[in-house]
Amino acid sequence: MEQRLVDKFGRVHDYLRISVTDRCNLRCVYCMPEEGMEFEPEERLLTFDEIAETVRVLAGYGVRKLRLTGGEPMVRKNLERLVAMLSSIPGIEDIAMTTNGIYFASRAEKFRQAGLTRINISLDSLRADRFALITRGGDIHRVLAGIDAAIRVGLEPIKLNVVLMKGLNDDEIEDFLKLTLERNLHVRFIEYMPIGHDGEGWKSRYLPLSTVLERCERMGWSVEETGKDLKGNGPSQNFRIAGAAGTFGLIHPVSDHFCETCNRSCG
Prior knowledge:
Order of helices and strands: EHEHEHEHHEHEHEEE
Largest sheet: 9 strands, mixed
């Protein structure tokens, strides 16, 4: 009988997140200060061989799904090689990556051939000037090219992560929702929440995600809940606008704690 990782609450853990670096090529306003960050020296990071060996052991305990994260994972050199190593491990069925998408377009096919199966791309605005403001210098055109490349090589479902911020990007809710009407994209709105360096400043940007459903009603869109059917282990509450090709999701870390239904290990 296969051994499984089961915690004291009876939750089965078949999913592993792997942070391959703490570095990032952007400085998003809700994530990092503009300057003064201190990162781990490269020699303290797990090597690809060490990561693969860890996954090989955990696969023997029922881990089947992996997610590569950072920082920004694609600043780690030769990351495609790690994906290929992980995809060759018996029992591993799904390898996803969360990225800002800046470097993805030119490498999408290589990642797909290496064994990447899904991708999440962070995209907090569809307006070039505002995107540059939020990310402190990011080029939205490179991200949009990355999304197109992910569609082209078949990395589906493609999830777009949108941190919703009052007075900054909440006037784009409808624009993000419209993306799901014609394309098989899955837009996930995430509540703005406190980050260590932000003090109490996060409260001025906080907006409950009930706002998204209110905007749907205002637009006259009929919405139905779809359930958790997007392959991942995330805590998103998922919906579809009637007749839409894609879906949208709501992740409520502040207004609706989801710990009971989550199987991620925290601290």
